[in-house]
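Retro notes
What went well: the complex prediction finally ran end to end.
Inputs used:
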Amino acid sequence: MLVAHGETSRLLGMSSISRDDVARLAQLARIDLAEPELDRLAGQLTAIVDAVAQVSQVATRDVPATSHPLPLTNVFRADVVHPPLGQQAALAAAPAAEDGRFRVPQIMGEEP
Amino acid sequence: MSGLIGRTAVELAQALANREVSSREATQAHLDRIAAVDGSVHAFLHVDAEGALAAADAVDARRAAGEQLPTLAGVPVAVKDVLVTQGLPTTAGSRILQGWVPPYDATVVRKLRAAGLPILGKTNMDEFAMGSSTEHSAYGPTHNPWDLDRIPGGSGGGSAAALASYQAPLSIGSDTGGSIRQPAAVTGTVGVKPTYGGVSRYGVIALASSLDQVGPCARTVLDTALLHEVIGGHDPADSTSLAEPMPDIVGAARLGATGDLTGVRIGVVRELSGEGYQDGVRTRFEESLDLLRASGAEIVEVSCPNFPYALAAYYLILPSEASSNLARFDAMRYGLRVDDGAGTVERVMGATRAVGFGDEVKRRIILGTYALSAGYYDAYYGSAQKVRTLIQRDFDAAFTQVDVLVSPTAPTTAFRLGEKLDDPLAMYLNDVATIPANLAGVPGMSLPAGLAEDGLPVGFQILAPARADDRLYLVGAALETALESRWGGPLLSRVPNLTEVAR
């Protein structure tokens, strides 16, 4: 059962997620959030993080981490040339294209 | 259900092979059914009548020419909109991919086409497979054919509802935390999450790469096995694809259907029962255990002490991986772009993703970004990965004692649309019994166990060790045989008739 473990998060010094935290995270994730969204998400994320923090109860130092469900070794494909996606097919769904290339907005801001 | 749409895939395949029915007739019958009932179910985001009929005609021509065809050739199939289809729109239920037509086929889609299965269309899903109800689809929810006011499960609610409303005999799903099994449970259908790596993910829009697995959905265990056989196997285009041959799953399903489970050891997971599980779910589960016992199986209780932490670990690992995977939706090469003309790439991305992503996707991306950020990584993502080790150890220990593990698939029957939409934590609890399998990469099946006191379907979950998918089919087919003999027919024969709209 998933239960809130407020005590655990307090012990670990995990504080609630503030509105400013959400704004900073949204900027990192490249998602513009409106004011009401920031407030709503701050409340919801605090509740979720408080609940999922219980993982630290059993994740003791002697337990190794697992990143992948089954052991895998590196995989190489045969070194054979395959026809790539054609230029036209690659550009067909582009929001904007020009001269056989993707047309994108400017990367850097204007000099002040 | 009578007529062609009421037949199982096996029955249709037999009729096709005997030339009693053409693939065009079988495909047209399902297209007619879609036109008649999908207005109220909304299982499909896109229907490809023209493409499906062309594929059907091609199969009919090859059969007429005396060609030996694969078993399911000519039997139509529906495909979850998370698999890319060349020439057919693919959205993953998201606004950000509205109208996108991929330039290539997923390996699973290519295999379906090569085996001669006409693709009826693309099925509805929670946006980027994030959800347990399809309510997070940008294109509106799918409705449960058992009660149109209720959820069909998620994220693959469209693929499950299409089966339960006889719009397709077979469908493809994907399961990251239960998205095949939980929809199967609440719609009275069958769904299998194969062993991680058992089915290629090339061309599957990624949610959480260490958890995602594509799998088969159908109305019977044997149909599910036949579809599994078509889509499974090694794919050099997917580096996580298992290289070894698949076990004989169709043989296991046929063997299981004889109803003899003598010598099979079945473990009931103590931690996946009790509090939070609806009375009717528990009653049907216990009855199924009695039937398995009567079939000769030995039933014991097994403890998996770390399973109670699986949900928490999952909701750290999944958002973390999703926040990284969904970074590809950058408004540059394909998909939506919101651009007022004055912005930099960064501003265009922010504006596009604000409009293109729905609430749940934003919530999980932000959560994942938080869990991966400096200072929190060890406490959250790092700890979750340790829990993953503990869950795997629980499975390893359990499978030294028993051949398969069982539990209810979901704690409750289908809830009402809108009921949990504003409470993300309550929504996440639907996956409590299905998530451990994804964390450990082991295969799982859900099949119908009957109706609860509220008249809605209950799912029975079977879990097997990695690479032993055949055990799911052995035990699942035996239970299905025992249940149907008690019911006097399949559970779906009791699904309410949907009003067909005049055409």
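What we learned: The helical segments of chain A are 6-11, 19-28, 35-52, 87-91.
What to try next: split runs per interface for comparison.
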